[in-house]
Amino acid sequence: MKARHFLTTLAYLTIPIVAYATAGHTQQQWLGTWQTRDKWGSDYTIILKQDGTAYAQYAKGINGTWHKKDGGIVILWDNKTRDFLFNGVMGHQRLFTSPRDPASNYNAGMKKQP
């Protein structure tokens, strides 16, 4: 009974978040330089260019490509990691995932630089 209640509650909470997040930005609004943090709290920037390329000023630098998906942006990095950028209930956010190390996944806030 508790598991069913949890799933019902989860579905109830997920619907408004997904609806809010998928309202998203236009592709043009995602272009530019974004300030974010790694899982240790160190600041760095992500640059999204109109030609579909991305660059993270992290360590020695990481190149990637991006595309719009589900109201947000998916960045596929050359080091095989992935970011999903979206406008959620807590503002702009970034979900980091690594297929090599699922335990390293995390969420961070983002701020667009002028």
Q: What report would you give on this structure?
A:
The protein contains two helices and nine strands. It has a single domain (2-112), classed as Cathepsin C, exclusion domain (Lipocalin, Beta Barrel). The protein has 114 residues and is of the alpha+beta class.
Topology:
Elements: H1 2-23, H2 27-30, E1 32-37, E2 43-48, E3 53-56, E4 62-69, E5 72-77, E6 82-88, E7 91-97, E8 106-109, E9 111-112
Antiparallel strand pairs: 1-2, 1-9, 2-3, 3-4, 4-5, 5-6, 6-7, 7-8
Largest beta-sheet details: 9 strands, antiparallel
Oligomer description: single chain
Number of E strands: 9
CATH architecture annotation name: Beta Barrel
CATH fourth-tier homologous superfamily: Cathepsin C, exclusion domain
Please sum up the structure shown.
With 114 residues, the chain is an alpha+beta fold.
